[in-house]
Amino acid sequence: MVKILNGKKLAQQLNEHTAQRVANLKAKGIVPGLAVVLVGEDPASMIYTRNKARQADKLGFKSILKKMPSTVTQDELLATIRQLNADPCIHGILVQEPLPDQINQSAVIETISPEKDVDGFNPINVGKLYANDGRHFPVACTPRGVMTMLEQYQIPVAGKDVVIIGRSRLVGKPLQALMINQNATVTMLHHASTDAEYYLKHADIVVVGIGKANFLHASDIKNGAVVIDVGINRDEQGHLVGDVDFDDVSSVASAITPVPGGVGPMTIATLMQQTVDLAEWSNQ
Ligand SMILES: Nc1nc2c(c(=O)[nH]1)N[C@@H](CN(C=O)c1ccc(C(=O)N[C@@H](CCC(=O)O)C(=O)O)cc1)CN2
């Protein structure tokens, strides 16, 4: 019988733990501060940023949702980030992706102070993740949320064969580093991979995040594999679906994340957790 990994429930539990940490910080006179920058009016980004700001408010953070027009210039956006870098009440800064074409995404990420980079995208923090040197640093929230889910459901990764389909900066690459740091053997698959079928059939854990609805089927994976779906797509009826054919894959997997209610809610709960991490580290 397949186990459904309930991200919604885990996210609630993580938020409860984060609330306790906020109370401890407030007792010391520190209020965690999160600034979310939204450029333009992408409908999905508007929902995600609103949900981030709402959750931050619920947890008692100081929360700023800074909305900028899609016509904003690179200089204006970077100036806003520099202001937030200099604001002592703000511990975490993120700029919602995707960004309009006139904006250089790397320049934006590099302008966010590494100490406030709550998305963990700044190359300084990415380098620390790959170095695995034990220091404090933020990590991209979706992959960190995936690792928390596996840990909470007591699914070990050490010594396991893991296949990650998709090599994005947001998910695939940081997840690869997190998995390797925990002694998994990781294979990254992408559109130019040959022998993808072979690697998939041997994987103990399969993670898919490529934005293609119903991409992964039962016949692609080994019996008893754990399947993590990081995809977010809309079907013809407008329903939210992942990259995995959930009903089909559930017939052979030992555990699976649903969409909605799997990895997605963990992304926002991890963002809250990481804002509190940054507030704590900045006061150590
Ligand atoms: N700066 C960033 N931009 C983006 C990130 C990110 O981590 N940092 N990730 C994604 C979008 N994202 C967070 O920003 C995100 C996606 C999905 C969910 C979520 O809760 N999904 C729910 C369904 C919600 C719905 O009904 O639409 C679920 O899967 O159950 C949260 C956050 C891209 N941009």
TrEMBL record:
<keyword id="KW-0028">Amino-acid biosynthesis</keyword>
<dbReference type="InterPro" id="IPR046346">
    <property type="entry name" value="Aminoacid_DH-like_N_sf"/>
</dbReference>
<feature type="binding site">
    <location>
        <begin position="166"/>
        <end position="168"/>
    </location>
    <ligand>
        <name>NADP(+)</name>
    </ligand>
</feature>
<protein>
    <recommendedName>
        <fullName>Bifunctional protein FolD</fullName>
        <ecNumber>1.5.1.5</ecNumber>
        <ecNumber>3.5.4.9</ecNumber>
    </recommendedName>
</protein>
<dbReference type="InterPro" id="IPR036291">
    <property type="entry name" value="NAD(P)-bd_dom_sf"/>
</dbReference>
<dbReference type="InterPro" id="IPR020630">
    <property type="entry name" value="THF_DH/CycHdrlase_cat_dom"/>
</dbReference>
<dbReference type="Pfam" id="PF02882">
    <property type="entry name" value="THF_DHG_CYH_C"/>
</dbReference>
<feature type="domain" description="Tetrahydrofolate dehydrogenase/cyclohydrolase catalytic">
    <location>
        <begin position="5"/>
        <end position="119"/>
    </location>
</feature>
<dbReference type="InterPro" id="IPR000672">
    <property type="entry name" value="THF_DH/CycHdrlase"/>
</dbReference>
<dbReference type="InterPro" id="IPR020631">
    <property type="entry name" value="THF_DH/CycHdrlase_NAD-bd_dom"/>
</dbReference>
<feature type="domain" description="Tetrahydrofolate dehydrogenase/cyclohydrolase NAD(P)-binding">
    <location>
        <begin position="140"/>
        <end position="280"/>
    </location>
</feature>
<comment type="pathway">
    <text>One-carbon metabolism; tetrahydrofolate interconversion.</text>
</comment>
<comment type="similarity">
    <text>Belongs to the tetrahydrofolate dehydrogenase/cyclohydrolase family.</text>
</comment>
<keyword id="KW-0378">Hydrolase</keyword>
<keyword id="KW-0554">One-carbon metabolism</keyword>
<keyword id="KW-0486">Methionine biosynthesis</keyword>
<keyword id="KW-0560">Oxidoreductase</keyword>
<dbReference type="InterPro" id="IPR020867">
    <property type="entry name" value="THF_DH/CycHdrlase_CS"/>
</dbReference>
<feature type="binding site">
    <location>
        <position position="232"/>
    </location>
    <ligand>
        <name>NADP(+)</name>
    </ligand>
</feature>
<keyword id="KW-0521">NADP</keyword>
<comment type="subunit">
    <text>Homodimer.</text>
</comment>
<keyword id="KW-0658">Purine biosynthesis</keyword>
<comment type="function">
    <text>Catalyzes the oxidation of 5,10-methylenetetrahydrofolate to 5,10-methenyltetrahydrofolate and then the hydrolysis of 5,10-methenyltetrahydrofolate to 10-formyltetrahydrofolate.</text>
</comment>
<keyword id="KW-0511">Multifunctional enzyme</keyword>
<dbReference type="Pfam" id="PF00763">
    <property type="entry name" value="THF_DHG_CYH"/>
</dbReference>
<keyword id="KW-0368">Histidine biosynthesis</keyword>
